[in-house]
């Protein structure tokens, strides 16, 4: 199969600040929108950086993917996912035409998520291809949206739970 990544340009940069946390989400190095043909590999990245002066503890990272579906099957080919972090993936039919998939990583899957020292960053990267045009008949305006979120249990010695979500990245299938 063709493993080349579609070339697109970003419209803007996405950075979510949570006081002492910067969270970014990209697909094929784009942070706002891109288009990809059926069968394309999509390279997702979630980066979390501690921009504060205290250690962050108890980090959970989550990818949420809303994708067009046909006959209750996502246009994303989850059976071909490449996830070195071995996150926990769960899928469910959201509406008649949209299927939601979430992938969650904790310190259980990635021990480095137990704590992030000031100035340090953690990166989750996974590849998830679109189904080929021969495997599914794509509906008109087929798309996938991707958001990343982080839950942090504590900052330094303070139990200060919080949740941060990035703006969505839109992938149009063409």
Largest sheet: 9 strands, mixed
* Radius of gyration (Å): 17 Å
Judging from the principal axes of the Cα atoms, what is the shape? elongated
**Hey, roughly how much beta strand do the residues contain?**
over 45%
Description of the molecule:
By secondary structure, this protein is mainly beta. Helices cover 0% and strands 50% of the residues. It contains no helices and 13 strands. The strands form two sheets. Strands 3, 5, 6, 7, 8, 9, 11, 12 and 13 form a nine-stranded mixed β-sheet that branches. A hairpin with a 2-residue loop joins strand 5 and strand 6. It is elongated, with a radius of gyration of 17 Å. The relative contact order is 0.29. The N terminus is likely disordered.
Give the SSE map.
Blueprint: E1 16-17, E2 21-27, E3 33-36, E4 41-50, E5 56-70, E6 73-74, E7 88-93, E8 98-105, E9 115-116, E10 121-129, E11 143-155, E12 162-165, E13 169-173
Parallel strand pairs: 3-13
Antiparallel strand pairs: 1-2, 2-4, 4-10, 5-6, 5-8, 5-9, 5-11, 7-8, 11-12, 11-13
